[in-house]
Amino acid sequence: MRDQTAIVGIGTTEFAKQIDRSERRLALEAIQGALVDAGIEPSEVDGLSCYSMESTEEIDIARNLGLGDLTWFSKVAYGGGAGCGVVGQAALAVASGQCSVAIAWRSRKRGGRGTRPWAGVSQRVQGDQQRWTRPYGMLRPVDEIAMLTTRYQHEFGATREHLANVALAARRHANANPAAVMFDRPMTREDYMSARWVSEPLCLFDNCLETDGACAVVITSAERARDLRQPAALIHSWAQSLPQQHQTMTNFFCDDPLRGPSWSCAEKLWSLAEVKPDEVAVAQLYDAFSPLVLLSLEGYGFCERGEAGPFTQDGGIEIGGRLPVNTSGGGMSEAYLHGFNLIVEAVRQVRGTSSNQVPDAEFSLVTSGDGVPTGALLLRSDR
Amino acid sequence: MIEGLLLPGMDEDSEPFFGFTAVQELRVQCCSDCSAARMPPRPMCPHCGSLESIWELLSGSGTIWSYCVPHGPLLPAYSALAPYNLIIVEIPEYPAIRFCGNLVASPNGEINELDPAGIRIGESVQVVFPEAVEGVVLPRWQRLEDGES
Ligand SMILES: [Zn+2]
């Protein structure tokens, strides 16, 4: 299905720490925006794809927007690992003829306290991911990633300077993106180094934002895309990965816990692509936590194992650097919507409309979360 | 909101593990047919498909594979202890099986009583069996030299 489908419309609500409208309302606004952007009527939509964690339902989306007869609808599991699979599966449905125009979306409100999913456990912890860790106090995703980070630093010599490079690159990009939550909030290296700990070795600025908002994209055939309003973002290749013996999140019961699902996802992604990592101009790498960007740089083959820290030095992942990463500000400084805003930004880069545009970006990569069963999309401009 | 510390929920697969820790034994589930060890415990051996398993006694020694130090916000009972240490322990018998736990100064010590700045990857540790609540033992870990003194 290489280059046979395309993202032809993108839509977002505003992003903010707290928005008073419902998740349903936000989803509808983002999807409506994406359809207007594409120049496609709601009645033409016959496919829907979302995260299994999405709280808005297909029937509500379809009944409000006035969608046509849906012939395909599906969901992808594993939270921040799902986004690229949500879009990729919609593209697969279009390519196979199960539908002709599909929408993928994510609407999420978590700005308010009391909505932290990790706090929603019961006293007696069930489930293989949690039973063996939560009672000891490994309560939050950040604690799992902190554990990996200490080991990563030990094995490869990565430092807090390297983690700061990730956070600062995202912030600088956000400072040029008026839609970013952190648009008017510059950050210095000193700000990073003096921030409070969340789970040592990770501090506040190693964590993504907590954001309310919604994003949507419209997917159709590349053939149809050429008659539409916007430059097509062709889906060149895409992949999902649930590696053997993996579990919901960080897996300590395996030979090498630092080798996350990105590695096997990358293998599939590149095997389906005509290009190699060095031909990718820009990447949106899932960044719920800064170390995930380092692990993803290695997993997707942008540098050798253990060399992602040095790769970020001297502006390596900023505009003008070796590989500009998270050019909208990403989850750490634009908005955290389980990675869906990264997909929207990857589209902007091949359209040439990013507020941190990489010149002549032909191939634009976006990934979902490392550590969880994941996915990736490699987009291509239709020039 | 939950007040106390969390406890492992039991099901038919995990209950034996905590049955053994309650009698001060650290054991791992192994396939009866091909001997492969697996964690978390589950019904089927992924190597040979066998549904039969035994629980092999481990030496209880290990080395610290990694650690981290959570700070708040956390559930209230954990916030009260924060910052505390979390460790992942590698065991010599099965390097791919790593237990999450805490480093304590004595078998019934609190998880925040050791200075986390002193924890090092590669330190040798030995399992201890403190009772979390009556009848439920969560294995934790003590430095070898602390255990000998
Ligand atoms: Zn077996």
UniProtKB/TrEMBL annotation, chain A:
Residues 7-187 form the Thiolase N-terminal domain. Signal peptide: none annotated. Residues 267-371 form the Thiolase C-terminal domain. GO terms for molecular function: acyltransferase activity, transferring groups other than amino-acyl groups. It holds the Pfam family Thiolase_N. This is Unannotated protein.
From TrEMBL, chain B:
SUPFAM superfamilies: Nucleic acid-binding proteins. Pfam families: OB_ChsH2_C, zf-ChsH2. Residues 55-129 form the ChsH2 C-terminal OB-fold domain. This is Unannotated protein. It comes from freshwater metagenome. Residues 23-50 form the ChsH2 rubredoxin-like zinc ribbon domain.
